[in-house]
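dumping this here before i forget
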Amino acid sequence: MKQHEQWTSKIGFILAAAGSAIGLGAIWKFPYMAGTNGGGIFFLIFILFTLLIGAPMLLAEFIIGRSTQKDAITSYKVLAKGSKWHYIGILGVIASFILLSFYSVVGGWIVTYLGKSFIGGLSNFTLDEYSGLFEQTIASPLLVLIAQFIFILITIYVVQAGVQSGIEKASKILMPLLFIIFLVLLIRSLTLEGAWEGVRFFLQPDLSLITPNTFLMALGQALFSLSVGISIMVTYSSYLTKGENLVKSAGSVVGLNIIISLLSGLVIFPAVFALGLQPDEGPGLVFVILPAVFDQLPFGVIFLAMFMILLLFATLTSAFSILEIIVAVIVKDNQEKRKKVAWVTGIIIFIMGIPSALSFGVLSDLTINGLIFFDAADYLVTNIALPVGALLISIFVGHRIPKDILKDEFFQGSTVRKSVFSIWYYLIRYIIPVGILLVFIQSLGLI
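structure:
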């Protein structure tokens, strides 16, 4: 029996897409990227790239997927018959394998810390001891592999159930809970003495902190946090009906992503500065600084557990979308194969992730161009695959798909003005490809 699944409602799609976009990108990665790249100026550049590049790219992927109702590889074959453009989809699938292989490692860290927070194992330590605990945790081979496996199992369990019964159902529950927990933490963080120093660091741009790398990191973060560039949103939008308003849906996802990034910064940086700590901790920011912060607050154990639950929810909703793009390509419209494909693919990704999981411990000496395996995988996806994928998709949509098809998809179910399409088309055809190339060239120090 063959059939192409569809979302049961518009809100289900928006929450699932927003869940994919928010995830670790907005809650784990964004704070430490902002903390190590200038705070307010990074946030400003990130917003500009999100609106001028990320949002048009998101809409472009929506158009590709909804117009064909096919997976991330077949979509390009349908729109460009007899060409090699489907290699964009292949790039996306390969990048998704790599992405989920190291993403699940961080998911495992969260599972571990959530467990520790429930049993009171994250209290009464000094900052140095919290740092040592994190290093000890991620260096423990058995612990990180078991935690990573648990995270992968949860992801597989949801995805194998399908789009409606699995991903959409889970997203409708997890995303509202995420917002509620975020608001509680926001109130707690902003009421700390000295919190406004953190607010100023996060929201007040300092031009002197700009470096050539700031733009590449902000671009990578904008694409990473919206899940664009590797055709994840091509897959999700392929489950949409023709009557859905793609422009409004894209706007909703982008808006939610910026709001969550803002909330994330306003939860973390005020708390960090309130205790006189530094925001440039790096990837361990939420695992080292935040436990130390919450430990010094009334009911801190409860707030820390809430944050870890929030982080796990967000991480899982992103993991669903990454695994789904791979499963959809293999299953195509034969849903009878979904369960088997999801389990086999998930286990393969777990095995692929073992070097990343062990790269902070027994494999710490294994480096690629000076980077440990985990960091190399992250850099390859975030700073190479995503921008390259976005560049190719923008060229494909702007120069390969007939303008009439783009217009038809753009205005189906939409009442936006024609000028909105003209602006989007101009951005996707000319500005975005040039912008991505300039960021690349600048990051290499050539301009």
